[in-house]
Protein 1
Amino acid sequence: VSAERVRVGLLGCGTVGEAAARILIANGDEIRRRAGTPVQLARVAVQDTSKARGVDLPAESWTSDAWSVVTDPDIDVVVEAIGGIDPAKALILAAFASGKPVVTANKELLSTHGQEVMDAADQAEVDFIFEASVGGGIPIIRPLKESLAGDRVTRIMGILNGTTNFILTRMSETGGSFEEALAESERLGYTELDPSADIEGYDAAAKLAILSSIAFNARVVAGDVHREGISTVSARDISAAHELGYEIKLLGVAEIQDGAITARVYPAMLPKTHPLAAVRDVFNAVFVEGEESGELMFFGRGAGGGPTGSAVVGDVVEVARNLATGGRAVGCTCAGYAKLRPQEETPVRYYVVLSVADRPGVLSEVAGVFARHEISIASVRQEGQGDQATLVAITHTASEGQHQATFANLGGLAVVKSVDSTLRVEGTDER
Ligand code: NAP
Ligand code: HSE
């Protein structure tokens, strides 16, 4: 480290990198005071050096060779804002090998190869921090790692993807279809070129894996998370949810019970009175339950240059302070691989809609199937008549496996024309 300043090498200058660069330059005075040393953006690697960027740096600071930045002896800290696995992972490992700490927002890397990268940082005895990888500008990783270090977190429930929250909010507020809301999201530029990572829940699953690993001190990877997307949610589901006093949200839920972790992402019914039900549009929020701290909620913008860049620069300040004072950031806190409870054994509640024949005895036949699988029904009501008759039921807690077996059996009953909708119910007092 230079005696006078900490020099930053930035890899990638897209949405996140450009905002981080802008903030580092614009807030230089505050950053110097908070870090206890001046922090200088010294070099930036991009793919195309001829592109115009909103970052005021001399021409010699720019390069298309990211490797030259991570091995540059004049660079003290590397910020990785390229994204994806290749070449981001190799560049980060090379930075560690050169003795440099790294800041990243790369959820894809962390939720797949995170352990290998964290082990390499520990071995090199350098900081590796990643506040921006979950929830963009929302401080959530540092609170879990540091502020709640004295407590036991038992549950995390979050709205972890802005695009899907926008789509479900539009469906809820306009009564429109999934396709209409997706088109609006695309028009407003909220949706990635390939929206499937958002829509199918992959992005939220990656973020939930990172949060679960930290909250439960265990290694949870994206593939461990049970995942379902929102493309099957219909306008009818949303209006039925409203009638019952619920909103439908894409939730990431992770719990630890008797030493086993469950982690799942799916669209679920949430009582309108739950704080997460009020989280609209592209906003994200994470609801955390601690044994001692009780219920906590973290809310804000989960994406975009400003919020994500702010979180990245906050990490740079921590690293710079550590370099100046000889401190170290909190490293990997995972004790080992998690014992994961299979989704079939996870306790859940369901909302179920069945199209049924409208004649005596139907309700008792349907109730009999629930009873055979030892599922207690919390409420049931008939809507419509004749050909339009539907039964809407909400169950008490039973395992996912019991529910799936029930739905399969219901589909085989002569009196049930179709199982139209099945959605979990989350956020009620019942566990
Ligand atoms: P982006 O806009 O696509 O920017 C990527 C940048 O990386 C571009 O500047 C690109 O250069 C550069 N790049 C690509 N390959 C390179 C290489 N081999 N060497 C040097 N530079 C290279 O991506 P982003 O949205 O900023 O996302 C960056 C990271 O932040 C990802 O891990 C993402 O998951 C995470 N993140 C993003 C957000 C968000 O709101 N966007 C929120 C939270 C986390 P060119 O500009 O020359 O093409
Ligand atoms: N595509 C993500 C979202 C933003 O919609 O929340 C980056 O994590």
Note: The mean pLDDT is 95.
Protein 2
Amino acid sequence: MISAAAELIRQADRILVICHVAPDGDAIGSLLGLGRALEKLGKHPVLACADPVPRLYRYLPGQENITAHPQGEFDLVISLDCSDLQRLGAPFKEADVAGKPIINIDHHITNVNFGTVNWVDTSAAATAQMVLELVEYLGVPLDPDMATCLLNGIVTDTQGFRTPNTTPRVVAAALRLMEAGASLPYIAQQVFNRRPISQIRLWARALTEMQLDGRVLWATITPDMRRDCQMTEDGDGGLVGFLVSAVEADVAIVFAQQEDGTVEVSMRAVPGIDVSGVAFSLGGGGHPQAAGCKLQPPLEEAQRRVLQAVKEALRRQTGQ
Ligand code: 5GP
Ligand code: MN
């Protein structure tokens, strides 16, 4: 698969490189790292994402070049860290790419193989790890900026080398990136150790109202709560990862309602429990320990559906 991907890249010139909506550190890091590598190969990549780069990742070199409106013609599309076409959002729909080949590079177990070439490696801890392997396969020399972007993807998707898929292979990939000039402590400081107080206030609000239902710990974020705390970004700022640290819980869920009413559902599970199937059955996707979906309002109905599906999955998986 890596050879088929490399072959398509060698033949192409103007390449649309695109990641999923509501991008995370792996999506942005992979996009920027691959973009730089393609430029070094003499290609003309355009980097696209439906949503703005989250504040947390604005320290990454080149992030200001990511566009939501890719212009002109393309002869190849490379999709990164995205499990279905829908999740590429508006820039893919609007771009001039009809009939052009798509390389689908991803590590989600829920990937639906929508590409012309599907390189989906569920044993990879991050898409950035796969991008590094592709860059090396293409023979492009790493530079410190490229290495920083790719290591950002690995560090964020493994939550600082703590997830169950942290293998010797991904640690070795991180080592090569450090040797190429990326600083692990600098990246960790940027992505884990700094957050705006508005986010801490929002967590405080959500935490006072969280609920434990069996071994499922869940919390809600509404647009009103966001306004009260002056929190401008979507999502939960990582709250769900904090909730799943509760020893009384096997699964944590955050329901983050957006201005338009859509309910963004973020799920986390302890090692040994798999929530990717629940997310997929509700139209979303993800990994065994981290998955999500988007549901229509009303909020209470979305919560009821998700809680019921999660509790059913827990019963099946634990036999209780
Ligand atoms: P998070 O909870 O951090 O937003 O997402 C956790 C994981 O689930 C990530 O790998 C993310 O890509 C995936 N995910 C979250 N929401 C959706 C969704 O609506 N659709 C799909 N296909 N994957 C999602
Ligand atoms: Mn990823």
Note: The chain is about 40% helix and 20% strand.
